[in-house]
Amino acid sequence: xxxxxxxxxxxxxxxxxxxxxxxxxxxxxxxxxxxxxxxxxxxxxxxxxxxxxxxxxxxxxxxxxxxxxxxxxxxxxxxxxxxxxxxxxxxxxxxxxxxxxxxxxxxxxxxxxxxxxxxxxxxxxxxxxxxxxxxxxxxxxxxxxxxxxxxxxxxxxxxxxxxxxxxxxxxxxxxxxxxxxxxxxxxxxxxxxxxxxxxxxxxxxxxxxxxxxxxxxxxxxxxxxxxxxxxxxxxxxxxxxxxxxxxxxxxxxxxxxxxxxxxxxxxxxxxxxxxxxxxxxxxxxxxxxxxxxxxxxxxxxxxxxxxxxxxxxxxxxxxxxxxxxxxxxxxxxxxxxxxxxxxxxxxxxxxxxxxxxxxxxxxxxxxxxxxxxxxxxxxxxxxxxxxxxxxxxxxxxxxxxxxxxxxxxxxxxxxxxxxxxxxxxxxxx
Length: 429
Prior knowledge:
Helix content: 25-40%
Number of helices: 13
Distance between the termini: 5 Å
Shape: globular
Number of strands: 19
Low-confidence stretches: 1-14
Protein backbone atom coordinates (compact mmCIF):
# COMPACT_ATOMS: atom_id res chain seq x y z
CA UNK A 1 0.00 0.00 0.00
CA UNK A 2 2.00 2.97 -1.27
CA UNK A 3 0.90 6.41 -0.08
CA UNK A 4 1.64 9.90 -1.27
CA UNK A 5 3.09 12.53 1.07
CA UNK A 6 -0.33 13.86 2.09
CA UNK A 7 -1.59 10.38 2.88
CA UNK A 8 1.46 9.58 4.99
CA UNK A 9 1.09 12.84 6.92
CA UNK A 10 -2.58 12.12 7.59
CA UNK A 11 -1.77 8.71 9.06
CA UNK A 12 1.03 10.10 11.18
CA UNK A 13 -1.33 12.72 12.64
CA UNK A 14 -3.92 10.08 13.42
CA UNK A 15 -1.76 7.54 15.16
CA UNK A 16 0.71 7.44 18.03
CA UNK A 17 3.69 5.14 18.00
CA UNK A 18 3.34 1.44 17.34
CA UNK A 19 5.51 -0.21 20.01
CA UNK A 20 7.26 -3.31 18.68
CA UNK A 21 8.62 -5.66 21.33
CA UNK A 22 11.47 -7.59 19.76
CA UNK A 23 14.13 -6.57 17.27
CA UNK A 24 14.46 -9.82 15.35
CA UNK A 25 13.45 -10.55 11.76
CA UNK A 26 9.72 -10.10 12.35
CA UNK A 27 9.97 -6.99 14.51
CA UNK A 28 12.41 -5.16 12.25
CA UNK A 29 10.46 -6.07 9.12
CA UNK A 30 7.32 -4.70 10.74
CA UNK A 31 9.15 -1.47 11.60
CA UNK A 32 10.26 -1.07 7.97
CA UNK A 33 6.76 -1.84 6.66
CA UNK A 34 5.24 0.72 9.04
CA UNK A 35 7.79 3.32 7.98
CA UNK A 36 6.88 2.67 4.36
CA UNK A 37 3.21 3.52 5.01
CA UNK A 38 3.99 6.52 7.22
CA UNK A 39 3.19 5.09 10.66
CA UNK A 40 5.66 5.99 13.45
CA UNK A 41 7.01 3.12 15.50
CA UNK A 42 9.65 2.21 18.05
CA UNK A 43 11.46 -1.13 18.28
CA UNK A 44 12.29 -2.35 21.78
CA UNK A 45 14.88 -5.13 21.95
CA UNK A 46 15.80 -6.94 25.17
CA UNK A 47 19.50 -7.54 24.52
CA UNK A 48 21.88 -4.67 25.35
CA UNK A 49 24.10 -5.38 22.34
CA UNK A 50 23.34 -6.89 18.95
CA UNK A 51 25.78 -9.69 18.12
CA UNK A 52 26.00 -11.77 14.96
CA UNK A 53 24.42 -15.03 16.11
CA UNK A 54 22.69 -18.01 14.59
CA UNK A 55 23.10 -20.23 11.58
CA UNK A 56 21.41 -20.41 8.18
CA UNK A 57 17.90 -19.43 7.15
CA UNK A 58 16.02 -19.61 3.87
CA UNK A 59 13.90 -16.75 2.63
CA UNK A 60 11.35 -18.27 0.28
CA UNK A 61 10.10 -16.28 -2.74
CA UNK A 62 7.02 -14.87 -0.97
CA UNK A 63 9.20 -13.49 1.83
CA UNK A 64 11.81 -12.30 -0.66
CA UNK A 65 9.11 -10.40 -2.58
CA UNK A 66 8.16 -8.45 0.55
CA UNK A 67 11.79 -7.62 1.37
CA UNK A 68 12.30 -6.47 -2.23
CA UNK A 69 9.27 -4.22 -1.81
CA UNK A 70 11.13 -2.61 1.08
CA UNK A 71 14.15 -1.98 -1.16
CA UNK A 72 16.32 -4.57 0.60
CA UNK A 73 16.91 -7.06 -2.20
CA UNK A 74 20.23 -5.56 -3.47
CA UNK A 75 21.76 -5.58 0.02
CA UNK A 76 20.59 -9.12 0.72
CA UNK A 77 21.88 -10.42 -2.61
CA UNK A 78 25.36 -9.24 -1.66
CA UNK A 79 25.31 -11.67 1.29
CA UNK A 80 23.17 -14.62 0.29
CA UNK A 81 23.29 -17.58 -2.06
CA UNK A 82 20.46 -17.59 -4.58
CA UNK A 83 19.24 -21.15 -4.22
CA UNK A 84 18.40 -22.72 -7.57
CA UNK A 85 17.40 -26.34 -6.87
CA UNK A 86 16.05 -28.72 -4.26
CA UNK A 87 17.51 -32.22 -4.11
CA UNK A 88 16.17 -35.18 -2.15
CA UNK A 89 18.43 -38.18 -1.48
CA UNK A 90 18.02 -41.31 0.61
CA UNK A 91 20.65 -42.09 3.25
CA UNK A 92 22.53 -44.19 0.72
CA UNK A 93 23.16 -41.13 -1.44
CA UNK A 94 20.68 -42.09 -4.17
CA UNK A 95 18.79 -39.25 -5.85
CA UNK A 96 15.06 -39.44 -5.16
CA UNK A 97 13.80 -36.15 -6.58
CA UNK A 98 15.07 -32.84 -7.96
CA UNK A 99 13.18 -29.64 -8.75
CA UNK A 100 14.13 -26.01 -9.48
CA UNK A 101 13.76 -23.27 -6.87
CA UNK A 102 13.52 -19.50 -6.86
CA UNK A 103 14.14 -17.72 -10.14
CA UNK A 104 15.16 -21.02 -11.74
CA UNK A 105 11.56 -22.17 -11.13
CA UNK A 106 10.05 -19.05 -12.70
CA UNK A 107 9.53 -16.90 -9.59
CA UNK A 108 9.98 -13.14 -9.88
CA UNK A 109 12.18 -13.12 -6.79
CA UNK A 110 14.94 -15.44 -5.63
CA UNK A 111 14.97 -17.97 -2.86
CA UNK A 112 17.73 -16.64 -0.64
CA UNK A 113 19.84 -18.88 1.60
CA UNK A 114 21.57 -16.59 4.05
CA UNK A 115 23.25 -16.52 7.44
CA UNK A 116 20.70 -15.32 9.97
CA UNK A 117 23.21 -12.73 11.20
CA UNK A 118 23.52 -11.25 7.69
CA UNK A 119 19.74 -11.03 7.36
CA UNK A 120 19.33 -9.54 10.83
CA UNK A 121 22.06 -6.93 10.42
CA UNK A 122 20.70 -5.88 7.01
CA UNK A 123 17.28 -5.30 8.55
CA UNK A 124 18.76 -3.54 11.59
CA UNK A 125 20.89 -1.16 9.52
CA UNK A 126 17.91 -0.29 7.32
CA UNK A 127 15.67 0.32 10.35
CA UNK A 128 18.21 2.59 12.03
CA UNK A 129 18.81 4.53 8.81
CA UNK A 130 15.12 5.01 7.98
CA UNK A 131 13.54 5.36 11.42
CA UNK A 132 16.49 6.98 13.19
CA UNK A 133 18.75 5.32 15.74
CA UNK A 134 16.55 6.57 18.59
CA UNK A 135 13.70 4.44 17.27
CA UNK A 136 15.57 1.16 17.78
CA UNK A 137 16.25 0.82 21.50
CA UNK A 138 18.34 -1.95 23.04
CA UNK A 139 18.29 -3.20 26.62
CA UNK A 140 14.50 -2.84 26.89
CA UNK A 141 13.16 -6.15 28.20
CA UNK A 142 9.39 -5.88 28.32
CA UNK A 143 7.77 -7.65 31.27
CA UNK A 144 4.14 -6.49 31.16
CA UNK A 145 1.59 -4.27 29.47
CA UNK A 146 -1.48 -2.29 30.50
CA UNK A 147 -4.02 -0.86 28.09
CA UNK A 148 -7.04 1.40 28.08
CA UNK A 149 -9.29 2.90 25.45
CA UNK A 150 -6.58 5.34 24.35
CA UNK A 151 -3.45 3.23 24.13
CA UNK A 152 -1.00 0.73 25.61
CA UNK A 153 1.66 1.19 28.29
CA UNK A 154 4.66 -1.15 28.35
CA UNK A 155 6.70 -1.84 31.46
CA UNK A 156 10.30 -3.01 31.45
CA UNK A 157 12.63 -4.71 33.89
CA UNK A 158 15.43 -2.92 35.69
CA UNK A 159 13.65 0.34 36.32
CA UNK A 160 13.61 1.41 32.66
CA UNK A 161 10.87 4.05 32.23
CA UNK A 162 7.55 2.83 30.85
CA UNK A 163 6.52 3.68 27.30
CA UNK A 164 3.08 4.42 25.88
CA UNK A 165 1.85 4.00 22.34
CA UNK A 166 -1.25 3.41 20.28
CA UNK A 167 -0.54 -0.28 19.70
CA UNK A 168 1.84 -2.91 21.08
CA UNK A 169 3.05 -5.86 19.00
CA UNK A 170 4.80 -8.81 20.60
CA UNK A 171 7.47 -9.93 18.16
CA UNK A 172 9.70 -11.34 20.88
CA UNK A 173 9.80 -15.00 19.92
CA UNK A 174 8.83 -18.21 21.66
CA UNK A 175 9.60 -16.64 25.07
CA UNK A 176 7.29 -13.67 24.41
CA UNK A 177 6.34 -11.69 27.50
CA UNK A 178 3.17 -10.47 25.79
CA UNK A 179 2.15 -14.00 24.87
CA UNK A 180 2.60 -15.11 28.49
CA UNK A 181 0.45 -12.24 29.73
CA UNK A 182 -2.25 -12.85 27.11
CA UNK A 183 -2.24 -16.62 27.71
CA UNK A 184 -0.94 -17.22 31.25
CA UNK A 185 -2.29 -20.79 31.41
CA UNK A 186 -0.73 -22.00 28.17
CA UNK A 187 0.98 -25.38 28.30
CA UNK A 188 4.72 -25.86 27.87
CA UNK A 189 6.02 -26.20 24.29
CA UNK A 190 5.26 -29.53 22.63
CA UNK A 191 8.23 -31.82 22.10
CA UNK A 192 7.67 -33.51 18.77
CA UNK A 193 9.82 -36.56 19.45
CA UNK A 194 12.73 -35.28 17.36
CA UNK A 195 15.97 -33.53 18.20
CA UNK A 196 18.05 -31.30 15.95
CA UNK A 197 21.68 -30.26 15.70
CA UNK A 198 22.86 -27.37 13.51
CA UNK A 199 26.19 -26.04 12.40
CA UNK A 200 28.00 -24.13 9.67
CA UNK A 201 31.22 -25.20 7.97
CA UNK A 202 33.52 -23.72 5.33
CA UNK A 203 33.49 -26.27 2.52
CA UNK A 204 34.07 -26.59 -1.23
CA UNK A 205 31.06 -26.05 -3.49
CA UNK A 206 28.96 -29.18 -4.03
CA UNK A 207 26.36 -30.00 -6.68
CA UNK A 208 25.39 -26.65 -8.31
CA UNK A 209 26.87 -24.53 -5.53
CA UNK A 210 23.30 -23.29 -4.89
CA UNK A 211 21.55 -26.54 -3.97
CA UNK A 212 19.26 -27.10 -1.02
CA UNK A 213 19.75 -30.77 -0.28
CA UNK A 214 17.78 -33.10 1.98
CA UNK A 215 19.11 -36.55 2.85
CA UNK A 216 17.61 -39.53 4.71
CA UNK A 217 14.57 -39.69 6.95
CA UNK A 218 13.82 -39.03 10.63
CA UNK A 219 13.72 -42.62 11.82
CA UNK A 220 17.42 -43.10 11.06
CA UNK A 221 18.47 -39.48 10.68
CA UNK A 222 17.73 -36.70 8.22
CA UNK A 223 19.94 -33.83 7.07
CA UNK A 224 19.26 -30.53 5.34
CA UNK A 225 22.37 -28.98 3.76
CA UNK A 226 22.76 -25.74 1.81
CA UNK A 227 25.30 -22.91 1.24
CA UNK A 228 24.64 -19.52 2.85
CA UNK A 229 27.74 -17.47 1.90
CA UNK A 230 30.05 -17.53 -1.10
CA UNK A 231 33.85 -17.24 -1.18
CA UNK A 232 34.48 -17.25 2.56
CA UNK A 233 38.22 -18.04 2.27
CA UNK A 234 41.06 -17.80 -0.28
CA UNK A 235 40.14 -21.25 -1.60
CA UNK A 236 36.75 -19.97 -2.73
CA UNK A 237 34.87 -22.25 -0.33
CA UNK A 238 31.31 -21.55 0.70
CA UNK A 239 29.87 -21.42 4.19
CA UNK A 240 27.59 -24.46 4.34
CA UNK A 241 24.67 -24.66 6.74
CA UNK A 242 23.79 -28.19 7.87
CA UNK A 243 20.94 -29.52 9.99
CA UNK A 244 20.67 -33.01 11.44
CA UNK A 245 17.38 -34.26 12.85
CA UNK A 246 16.46 -37.65 14.30
CA UNK A 247 13.63 -39.33 16.14
CA UNK A 248 14.65 -39.64 19.81
CA UNK A 249 13.39 -39.25 23.35
CA UNK A 250 16.44 -37.07 24.10
CA UNK A 251 15.54 -33.56 25.19
CA UNK A 252 17.65 -31.20 27.32
CA UNK A 253 15.55 -28.05 27.48
CA UNK A 254 12.39 -27.54 25.44
CA UNK A 255 12.61 -23.74 25.67
CA UNK A 256 16.29 -23.28 24.74
CA UNK A 257 17.13 -23.29 21.04
CA UNK A 258 20.76 -22.29 21.51
CA UNK A 259 22.23 -25.12 23.57
CA UNK A 260 25.82 -26.02 22.65
CA UNK A 261 25.93 -29.36 20.86
CA UNK A 262 28.62 -31.96 20.16
CA UNK A 263 29.92 -33.01 16.78
CA UNK A 264 30.33 -36.53 18.16
CA UNK A 265 26.59 -36.88 18.71
CA UNK A 266 25.92 -36.21 15.04
CA UNK A 267 28.78 -38.32 13.70
CA UNK A 268 27.41 -41.30 15.60
CA UNK A 269 24.58 -41.34 13.04
CA UNK A 270 26.17 -40.01 9.84
CA UNK A 271 29.74 -41.30 10.14
CA UNK A 272 29.35 -43.42 6.98
CA UNK A 273 27.47 -40.86 4.86
CA UNK A 274 30.23 -40.39 2.31
CA UNK A 275 28.72 -39.81 -1.12
CA UNK A 276 30.21 -39.01 -4.51
CA UNK A 277 28.75 -35.51 -4.22
CA UNK A 278 29.52 -34.77 -0.52
CA UNK A 279 31.56 -36.07 2.43
CA UNK A 280 28.93 -35.51 5.13
CA UNK A 281 31.01 -36.52 8.19
CA UNK A 282 33.84 -34.29 6.95
CA UNK A 283 31.42 -31.39 6.62
CA UNK A 284 30.04 -31.91 10.13
CA UNK A 285 33.50 -32.28 11.67
CA UNK A 286 34.57 -28.97 10.06
CA UNK A 287 32.03 -27.00 12.13
CA UNK A 288 33.54 -24.75 14.75
CA UNK A 289 30.25 -24.38 16.62
CA UNK A 290 27.35 -26.83 16.86
CA UNK A 291 23.97 -25.95 18.37
CA UNK A 292 21.42 -28.42 19.67
CA UNK A 293 17.71 -27.70 19.36
CA UNK A 294 14.71 -29.53 20.75
CA UNK A 295 12.15 -29.78 17.97
CA UNK A 296 9.26 -28.05 19.70
CA UNK A 297 6.31 -25.93 18.78
CA UNK A 298 3.18 -24.64 20.51
CA UNK A 299 -0.38 -25.60 19.79
CA UNK A 300 -1.97 -22.83 17.71
CA UNK A 301 -3.52 -20.16 19.89
CA UNK A 302 -7.29 -19.58 19.81
CA UNK A 303 -6.60 -15.83 19.56
CA UNK A 304 -3.64 -13.43 19.30
CA UNK A 305 -5.23 -10.04 19.87
CA UNK A 306 -6.62 -8.24 22.87
CA UNK A 307 -7.71 -4.69 22.10
CA UNK A 308 -4.61 -2.78 21.04
CA UNK A 309 -2.16 -5.64 21.66
CA UNK A 310 -1.29 -8.48 19.28
CA UNK A 311 1.42 -11.00 18.44
CA UNK A 312 3.61 -11.57 15.37
CA UNK A 313 6.07 -14.19 14.11
CA UNK A 314 7.29 -16.84 16.56
CA UNK A 315 5.51 -15.06 19.41
CA UNK A 316 2.23 -15.79 17.63
CA UNK A 317 2.92 -19.09 15.90
CA UNK A 318 6.14 -20.88 16.87
CA UNK A 319 6.54 -23.77 14.47
CA UNK A 320 8.79 -26.73 14.00
CA UNK A 321 11.70 -25.44 11.87
CA UNK A 322 10.92 -27.45 8.77
CA UNK A 323 10.09 -26.19 5.34
CA UNK A 324 12.29 -23.05 5.52
CA UNK A 325 9.22 -21.07 6.49
CA UNK A 326 9.48 -19.52 9.95
CA UNK A 327 11.11 -16.25 8.89
CA UNK A 328 8.90 -16.01 5.82
CA UNK A 329 5.67 -16.22 7.82
CA UNK A 330 6.91 -13.47 10.17
CA UNK A 331 7.64 -11.27 7.14
CA UNK A 332 4.13 -11.90 5.77
CA UNK A 333 2.66 -11.05 9.19
CA UNK A 334 4.54 -7.74 9.15
CA UNK A 335 3.30 -6.69 5.71
CA UNK A 336 -0.28 -7.58 6.55
CA UNK A 337 -0.33 -5.76 9.89
CA UNK A 338 1.29 -2.59 8.55
CA UNK A 339 -1.11 -2.39 5.62
CA UNK A 340 -4.18 -2.82 7.82
CA UNK A 341 -3.02 -0.20 10.32
CA UNK A 342 -2.54 2.18 7.40
CA UNK A 343 -6.05 1.50 6.15
CA UNK A 344 -7.63 1.98 9.58
CA UNK A 345 -5.55 4.64 11.38
CA UNK A 346 -8.52 5.81 13.41
CA UNK A 347 -9.38 2.35 14.73
CA UNK A 348 -6.19 0.41 15.49
CA UNK A 349 -8.05 -2.24 17.48
CA UNK A 350 -10.12 -3.04 14.39
CA UNK A 351 -6.93 -3.18 12.31
CA UNK A 352 -5.40 -5.68 14.72
CA UNK A 353 -8.54 -7.80 14.68
CA UNK A 354 -8.51 -7.82 10.87
CA UNK A 355 -4.82 -8.79 10.88
CA UNK A 356 -5.51 -11.74 13.12
CA UNK A 357 -8.49 -12.79 11.02
CA UNK A 358 -6.23 -12.99 7.96
CA UNK A 359 -3.01 -14.33 9.39
CA UNK A 360 -3.99 -16.67 12.23
CA UNK A 361 -5.79 -19.26 10.06
CA UNK A 362 -2.99 -19.18 7.48
CA UNK A 363 -0.20 -19.68 10.01
CA UNK A 364 -2.16 -22.29 11.95
CA UNK A 365 -2.23 -24.38 8.81
CA UNK A 366 1.53 -24.00 8.38
CA UNK A 367 2.20 -24.99 12.02
CA UNK A 368 0.12 -28.15 11.68
CA UNK A 369 1.56 -29.03 8.27
CA UNK A 370 5.14 -28.64 9.50
CA UNK A 371 4.35 -31.26 12.15
CA UNK A 372 2.96 -33.85 9.77
CA UNK A 373 3.66 -33.15 6.09
CA UNK A 374 6.66 -30.90 5.44
CA UNK A 375 8.03 -30.69 1.87
CA UNK A 376 10.55 -33.46 2.54
CA UNK A 377 7.70 -35.92 3.21
CA UNK A 378 8.81 -37.26 -0.17
CA UNK A 379 11.68 -38.89 1.70
CA UNK A 380 9.31 -40.44 4.23
CA UNK A 381 7.40 -42.10 1.42
CA UNK A 382 10.57 -43.53 -0.10
CA UNK A 383 11.80 -44.69 3.32
CA UNK A 384 8.54 -46.54 4.02
CA UNK A 385 8.09 -48.02 0.56
CA UNK A 386 11.65 -49.33 0.30
CA UNK A 387 11.95 -50.45 3.91
CA UNK A 388 15.00 -48.19 4.25
CA UNK A 389 16.91 -50.05 1.55
CA UNK A 390 18.59 -48.89 -1.67
CA UNK A 391 16.39 -48.97 -4.77
CA UNK A 392 17.14 -49.98 -8.34
CA UNK A 393 14.89 -47.37 -10.01
CA UNK A 394 13.10 -44.57 -8.20
CA UNK A 395 10.27 -44.82 -10.74
CA UNK A 396 9.43 -48.26 -9.35
CA UNK A 397 9.06 -46.75 -5.86
CA UNK A 398 7.21 -43.46 -6.41
CA UNK A 399 6.24 -41.49 -9.50
CA UNK A 400 7.53 -38.04 -10.36
CA UNK A 401 3.92 -36.79 -10.36
CA UNK A 402 3.36 -38.00 -6.81
CA UNK A 403 6.54 -36.32 -5.59
CA UNK A 404 5.60 -33.02 -7.20
CA UNK A 405 2.14 -33.29 -5.63
CA UNK A 406 3.72 -33.63 -2.16
CA UNK A 407 6.07 -30.67 -2.55
CA UNK A 408 3.42 -28.60 -4.35
CA UNK A 409 0.88 -29.15 -1.56
CA UNK A 410 3.31 -27.68 0.96
CA UNK A 411 3.95 -24.63 -1.23
CA UNK A 412 0.22 -23.97 -1.41
CA UNK A 413 -0.22 -24.26 2.36
CA UNK A 414 2.74 -21.95 2.99
CA UNK A 415 1.53 -19.47 0.37
CA UNK A 416 4.40 -19.54 -2.09
CA UNK A 417 3.17 -21.71 -4.94
CA UNK A 418 4.03 -20.05 -8.22
CA UNK A 419 0.45 -19.43 -9.37
CA UNK A 420 -0.51 -17.69 -6.12
CA UNK A 421 2.52 -15.40 -6.18
CA UNK A 422 2.05 -14.52 -9.86
CA UNK A 423 -1.58 -13.60 -9.19
CA UNK A 424 -0.60 -11.51 -6.16
CA UNK A 425 2.07 -9.69 -8.16
CA UNK A 426 -0.51 -8.80 -10.81
CA UNK A 427 -2.83 -7.22 -8.19
CA UNK A 428 -2.08 -3.55 -7.35
CA UNK A 429 -0.87 -3.09 -3.75
